[in-house]
Amino acid sequence: METRPTHAVSRRRWLRGLGWLAAIAVCLAVFAMYTVPDFMVMVADKVWSCF
Q: Is residue 43 within 8 Å of residue 36, measured between CB atoms?
């Protein structure tokens, strides 16, 4: 029966945690931008200009 080396398991956990941290940071940045009305108007204008 083969077992994985412990460094591979710990590296995988570390990368998974880093991925979750990055995803949470992106979500927080997006939610923070909703508090800036001028930014939201600019985004709406850019989306509207596509049509």
A: no
Question: ∠ CA(12), CA(18), CA(19), 5° rounding?
Answer: 90
Tell me the whole-structure pTM to 2 decimals: 0.61
Domain hosting 31: range is 6-49
C-alpha to C-alpha distance for 12 and 27, rounded to whole angstroms: 23
Looking at the 3D structure of the chain, how many domains does it have?
1
Tokens of 33: 């931008």
pLDDT in tens, 9-28: 788 999 999 999 999 999 99
Residue 23 domain-assigned?
yes
